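Problem: given the chain below (226 residues), write out its structure.
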Amino acid sequence: MTVLYEDNHIIIVNKSSSEIVQGDKTGDVPLSETVKMYIKEKYHKPGNVFLGVVHRLDRPVSGVVVFARTGKALSRLNEMFRTKDVHKTYWALVKDKPVKSEGTCRDWMIRNEKQNKSYVSREGVNGAKEAILDYKLIGHTDRYHLLEVQLHTGRHHQIRCQLSHMGCPIKGDLKYGSPRSNPDGSICLHARRVEFVHPVSKETISVEAPLPDSPVWKGIQLLQES
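Solution.
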């Protein structure tokens, strides 16, 4: 865990692909507990430390995660995420180049709870929800293409599912069509940037997470126009 920004009301960290944001059935120590311990030790806080989880990243995904340090920040951030006033930018490495270098994906998606997987469906199917994202080809490595993704909705596994549906599964994402896994169990999806108006100070906060320390990410060459 690397702290990217902190003040009295919020703390923003760079999650590694091996960490879970909140506790689950694995029993592994979640990122939320690691952040609590960091705050407790740094500020010598007695007793329990308050920390509010306002959004999550899938375990194999790396990048920016925002936590609330006060109840006021938590309620306001929850509302900002609900009204889409928090802008998140993702980077994804895919094997196959998209037909168009940029565009919008509009699909209807349905979630299978038992499989912990989502599928592109049809409008009107029971449980189907609209999923919208924008993508743009912004770079490449010697074998992969780098897409920048902006989410307009927050569906389960949305980026993973929609990119796969358009023929561009994310590197390492076996669940959504990648032919091979990554050695460390990650998928090459990174929450690169978050931007929002601070819930208390009203200043614009823009934070970018460094890319994972791996050869494939280090090999990225950005296109000139990006």
